[in-house]
């Protein structure tokens, strides 16, 4: 019989505040990679799991998607929230998005939206994204010489892009911003409407009401947008149910928003903290695609996903039973000394850069090309106009166990 000992270090995974303290987080992750790369975490209010911190192990798990399933526990939630989600699903009211599904169903549902994220669709969207990037850099110029970059710029720009892709009217954007933050703000009080599962359910119900109407509209009058593709998409010849349509809109709207926002804000902070890298990039803008990749590795906005074993197995020699779950610690994988030279150095020319910030395998981020395009477009607009930039206060990170990054980034700058 195996004895499972809970490491002090492994507590960071079940502690949202750890993600608001980079030094503490990375000290724990570095220790775990070296000493206990498949660590048992038994920390209420979460059900126990194994935290996997090595890059190679996370890739192996994500590659073996018939052994390691997304259902029934795709991400870390409290036992209470897991139970509520299960009850909602059984009542036909639960969200069941791409991240919750396994093949073969997952592949069919993913195919409905996939065309909208391919290179051809990205090229069609490039002009709109560049226009929005310019709009937000102009806004920085207008509100300067100081602003909170997160609240003024980085939360708005990706939301506008994703809402444009979905085909929603601009007047609805502020409402969507609020709902997304309530759904995804996790443990941050600042974003919460309320903290009880019932209050969280109310946010979901608001999403439901908005998007159900959208499905009806797009079925009656299909247009050339992603919302129409979802509303009229079919699996095995059948239209998606209302709740499956809703789930699709929700995953696109939420996954496409805060993630990119955190990468842009964290990327800007990394450039401020590393002025040599900022000068290097300004002096050679052809480095931009590599710099974008490095910003995504550096910030790793999605902290984790989980998988559950479909059969008894092992990871790095640690036995794992059928039904037990593993936590894929992307933040740790992206600082793995065995994969990255000087992983704690922010290097805008890093090449190769095999980070796992977009995951790996069949669930690999559907919007990766869009996220890269947005970040590229924003910094391509900003940097040639930027004469100087510095912090104007202490940056603040979100407390979260899922998607997070900077919630405030006060900056002082001069722009052309
Ligand atoms: C820097 C920004 C982003 C990051 C770091 C990110 C990260 C991720 C990660 C880690 C996953 C799970 C991968 C896995 O399980 O292997 C994922 C899935 C997904 N992402 Fe992103 N994402 C970003 C931007 C976007 C954007 C802009 C969209 C646009 C809609 C998007 C849509 C999705 C969707 C739909 C999935 C589910 C895919 C599936 O399960 O098949 N993401 N993303």
From TrEMBL:
The keyword Thylakoid does not apply. Gene3D superfamilies: Cytochrome P450. One of its GO terms (molecular function) is iron ion binding. Coiled coil: none annotated. It comes from the Bacteria. InterPro entries: Cyt_P450, Cyt_P450_B, Cyt_P450_CS, Cyt_P450_sf. The keyword Oxidoreductase applies. This is Steroid C26-monooxygenase. It comes from Mycolicibacterium chitae.
